[in-house]
Amino acid sequence: xxxxxxxxxxxxxxxxxxxLRDGGTARVRPITADDADRxxxxxxxxxxxxxxxxxxxxxxxxxAKDVHRFTHHDFVDRVGLxxxxxxxxIATVRYDxxxxxxxxxxxxxxxxxxxxxVQDAHQGRGVASALLExxxxxxxxxxxxxxxxxxxxxxxxxxxxxxxxxxxxxxSFEDGVVRLEFDLEPTDRSLAVQRAREQRAxxxxxxxxxxxGAVAVIGVGRAPGGVGRSVLDHIRDAGFTGxxxxxxxxxxxxxxxxxxxxxxxxxxxxxGPVDLAxxxxxxxxVPGVVAECGEHGVQGLVVVSAGYAESxxxxxxxxxxxxxxxxxxxxxxxxxxxxxxxxxAPDVRLNASLxxxxxxxxxxxxxxxxxxxxxxxLSRLHRRGGGVTGVTGxxxxxxSGNRADVSGNDVLQYWYDDPDTDVVLMYLESxxxxxxxxxxxxxxxAAKPLVVVQGTRHGGAAPQGHAVRATRLPHATVSELxxxxxxxxxxxxxxxxxxxxxxxxxxxxAGPRVAILGNSESLGLLTYDACLSEGLRPLAPLDxxxxxxxGDFHRALSEALADEECDxxxxxxxxxxxxxxxxxxxxxxxxxxxxxxxxxxxxxxxxVELGGLAEALSAAASTAPQAGAPAPGTAxxxxxxxxxxxxxxxxxxxxxxxxxxxxxxxxxxAERAVRALGEAVKYAQxxxxxxxxxxxxxxxxxxxxxxxxxIGGLLAxxxxxxxxxxxxxxxxxxxxxxxxxxxxxxxxxxxVAAARTLGYPVALKxxxxxxxxxxxxxxxxxxxxxxxQLRRAYAELTGxxxxxxxxxxxxxxxxxxxxDTVVRAVIDxxxxxxxxxxxxGPASQLLGDIAHRLIPVTDRDAASLIRSIRTAPLLFGxxxxxxxxxxxxxxxxxxxxxxxxxxxxxxxxxxxxxxxAQHGLSxxxxxxxxxxxxxxxxxxPRTLPVY
Length: 947
Description:
By secondary structure, this protein is α/β, with parallel strands linked by helices. α16 packs parallel to α17 and α17 packs parallel to α18. It is flat, with a radius of gyration of 32 Å. Mean pLDDT is about 85; it is low at about 1-5, about 385-390 and about 620-660.
């Protein structure tokens, strides 16, 4: 072992699991003296050519001195990291701090030389790129700001690793060696490259689970029944196109098959490769199964076995060990306690789940953490009639169970550019990494609709088995932040399916104007009222009367769709009695043909007891592609995916506008149809706004370095602290946020002296915690014009609330009259940095009229933040009052956002009150809290979560 003279404390927080380019996983960790034998074994498996590229000369073996050097580190000036699979090294990287002459150095030298070595069998998997991200993060943590690397010109792969990383770099050539120097400060391009690599790797890791070439079900009983046998039957009955194997250690040695499916006593006995293993054995036997699968080269596991975190603390530790064990072999896990996975693609046809029937193929991706909810959603989407009627289909389905490894974030990465999925529906009981989910949701929603219902909204605790970060934000705030990321938030699984059906079948509306027509005046009026409740703009309902024929419906719908004042149409229909009443099929055909004539606007049907009409409207077998209509979920004109950050790989191919069927969704109640339409309207508006997201402006008077120096000095005092008044004013001043000064007034004479310093008129305020910002209690006296008024106010204040020591009075110069507001920013452990705004006083404190945006805030975000509170009219000249300077308020919001975004040590800022006048504003009170920044955040290197 290394002793204290060799090293600092072992940095366990540098350990991480990463997903590689091909979807497999590896473990990244610091190299220690205990790794000497592993290093030697690793080096022996590296080709002579790779050794030559590393050392610039033939170097067949490492000397004892080399081994000591490469395994003994101080974790500050000399650091080595290894990527491991199965406990063995597959790649290494190290840096050595150097001075300006290139000699070994210690701090404050800020440059280091970096070098990689990747085993030949693992080259091309993105191992070096992942290691570069991690060694760069380590270097920044150790105050190293620049890397230098010397590479032979023929080593094009390693040169590409450096040049593709996106850092600002300088390149030179001397003495036959390419020298690369690059700054380690993340740039927009390096971040875009990192996230594009993350998306590709995580998407491929999920694809390996959903598109396997061979599947083994482990734990198959010899008799019908039981979980393992049921899953095996479901895979076989669905027509899986790959190889299928049954595995059970209890099989007799002479048993060759189960109902014609090859049977084996262990995975190792299978002669060919196995891509996916479904594990259905008791939890106590799972570790042995995982080892067998890892040794055989299985790529992923679906663990349906229970007895893990859902069963208590011992189960939770068993679950963590399961994930650690699987990742050791580069495998990813869905589960444990999972319901399973489904892929309806005709070239796959995988039903590795407990669902007895394969759902109809379609364009909806479905994710459910709960197996019971997954069953309900699959059943509702599968059946005709009842609830939301009609037929729609599923592209892929994932039920993650305890979500110990693969989560909704991973599946979102897969669906983002999956050409078979147009709409994503998710039932989430918890969000393990909300910051990442919000980022991925924003990107996904720019390309295809994402509808989410979240369970346990009011329970305050995540379900058993789900480890999540605690949030201090109320659920309504979290929902608002998700909506800002483009997520269509609904409250029930009924609404989830309602919205999904509309988005999967119809284009997005261009606006909120809704035409209503049908054969029932009463149902039309109910629909009209529902539209108003949802914030839509309904046109006067058109009553076709109960005598309306299919031709009447066709003509009315054609005219409504052709009307430039209409963005969507809701058709209401009730059954009619008599010989001339239209048949369901005839009416459905009339509506479909009319909708096909103007395919750019959504059409919905509200029906009453018309099961036949609902089936007829959805007469096609699925939402699979058909010619002649715009893509479901697309806006008019033809939608384009949101432009991504430059230098990132290409955006996903948008669905073909002529690729999807024109099925008309039918709903049994006007409220449900209109609610779904309302969500589509809001989502379409978000899509249009997301195309121009705004920018984060820069301000020349911002002193970022000065603020960093002050923060560093303050934090040297302790782990976390609330700044004093002078320190707060100084820090905010570095970002151009002046705070109106206040002077303490410990006595009447002190108050008079303070007023003379500030100049009359002044305000006298009580700053005791129970009186602060409570003008309603009488703790504030304003517009004191002279000494007599000030002394009288001082006597009233102390007479009412107690001695000066209890009241803590201060004197402050009067600010121009205006509207009192409050601006806050906090770092939430789950949601990240959040900026909040509202009016000061009862509006925010009693009514909760506060709006929020995720930091960093753009100029568009700041403008919308101000206008999104219910009391916003008070800022814009309500009832004849003068409008205030909202431009100055927007700038203040942007400056606070910039301060918190630039300095993660600033964990809370409160400006209250901020008086916004006709011209300019005044910050009358401010507080700032600091704490050491988190070791890793969403801007750090790619890592898999540890729950």
